[in-house]
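Tutorial, part two.
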Amino acid sequence: MTALNLAELGTGARWRYALKPASWPKLLVPTLLGQVLGVQAAGALSWPGLLLGVVFTLALGTFIVLMNDWGDREVDAIKRRMFPDGGSPKTIPDGILPAPALLRMGGAAGLGAVLVAYLLGVWIERPWLGWLGLLCVLTFVAYSLPPLALNYRGGGEALEALGVGLLLPLFHGHAQAGVFWAAEWWVLTGFVALSLASALASGLSDEASDRVGGKRTLATQAGNAVTRRSTEALVLLGAGLWLLAGLWMPAIALWAMVPGVLAVLGFSTGMFRISSRATTGAFQAQGEYKQWLHRAIWSGALLVAAGLLAADIGADR
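Running the prediction step on this input gives:
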């Protein structure tokens, strides 16, 4: 996006850009996975749990995206000064939207997410659902915002994996089934590993500016190569944990897990192929590296969800 076409953007286009629609599968995929696991455990579909659950995710995602940009506005400005032509435009430093507007909209979305979770819990008689929704919001408050701002103090990647890989699917599983854990939900162990891989890889393109800005990530502390190797190991671990879930848990059909595992392994070959070029400062190669990673995670999780649904339908016949 150049300065010229940025100046031509209307208000709606600016907000669409700020909301980063290409990143939304990071939340929508665990939403679907959690819903499927909950339907499996309950043996039936709750339409309010599905529809308002999606509304919760949309509000939560809006909160996360906007508040992350607000919390990272200073380090984003550092990156823009260090790499004027590196990466995509930043919402606040590049003047797409002002910081107060993101703070207001993001705060309202966070409150809306908690309210939706509470109202849904009352409607479908899940009294703990509101608290689970609040926990999801507070997890990302601890990630992005002071006084904790753990993505600056270390541990932010682990917190992201906890929120995206475990808490969000558990919220949706509980919305459907009314329980906090069921045997089928061991699938989430592999998804947590994959979510941690995604969180680690997100720090690759910001390594240099994050280091100057005092942000503690694996990339700033251990470097690019260690971060890539850790990401790749976690992808293989996630696929392995999915296979183990199918082998060891009677409630999970092994054949239902195989397509997702193959998708992870297949798409990750692209990630491995480009890994040696995704070095510090190689923004284009890093972008391709993360694209292959996200394809592996999202397609794998969607195929696992489809396989679990197919197994559930087959068992009912």
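The longest helix spans residues 283-316. In part three we will examine how such features are distributed along the chain.
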